[in-house]
Amino acid sequence: MRPGDVLPDHQVGPVSAEKMKTMAALMRDANPIHFDPAAVRALGLGDRVVNQGPLNQAYVVSMLARWAGGAHRIRELRLRHLGAVFAGDRLRAHGTVTGVSEQDGVLVASCAVGLDVLGGDPVLSGTASVHIGG
After folding, report:
1. Which of 9, 53, 73, 130 is deepest in the core (most CB within 10 A)?
2. How buried is residue 65: exposed, middle or buried, by Cβ count under 10 Å (0-12/13-18/19+)?
C-alpha cells in the first residue's frame, strides 16, 4: 500500500424516501425536509426529501470499514458537508491513500475520502486515518 492507491468504491442507491422517514423517526429528527416534500418545496430545494447528514457520513464509514476490515479500524474521520442527497439519488463513496506511516507498531493509512451523487455534485469531502495492520 502506498500513496495514490485507490480504495474500492462503495455505491449506494437509489436513496429511499421511506427509509429517510423511518430514520427521521428513529433519530427523533423532526425536521420535515426528511419526510415532507411540501417542506422541501417551501425552502426552494425541489420536490424530493433530503437525506440525513449522519446517513451520508455512514456511507463513507461503510466504504472505509469494508476496505480496512471493520469499522473498529477507523481512528479518525473528518468530513465537510458540501451538498445534499435527495430521495432517488445514487451515490459513490470513494477514497485514496494519501500517506502510510507506522504508529506504535501499527500501519496507519491517511486517506482523502468523499461522497458524490452519481452524475452530480460532491456531497462530502474529508480525511480519514485508518489502522491497516497489527
Report:
1. 130
2. middle
In one-letter notation, the amino acid at residue 77 is L
Contact assessment for residue 20 and residue 48, using Cβ atoms and an 8 Å cutoff: no
Sheet containing 106-117, strands listed edge to edge, beginning at the edge strand earlier in sequence? 10-12, 91-103, 106-117, 122-131, 74-81
In the block, residue with C-alpha cell 461503510: 62
- Torsion sign across C-alpha atoms 83, 9, 49, 24: negative
Q: Where are the alpha helices (DSSP H) in the chain?
A: 17-26, 37-42, 53-68
Distance of alpha carbon 11 from alpha carbon 31, whole angstroms: 26
pLDDT tens, residue by residue, 122-131: 999 999 999 9
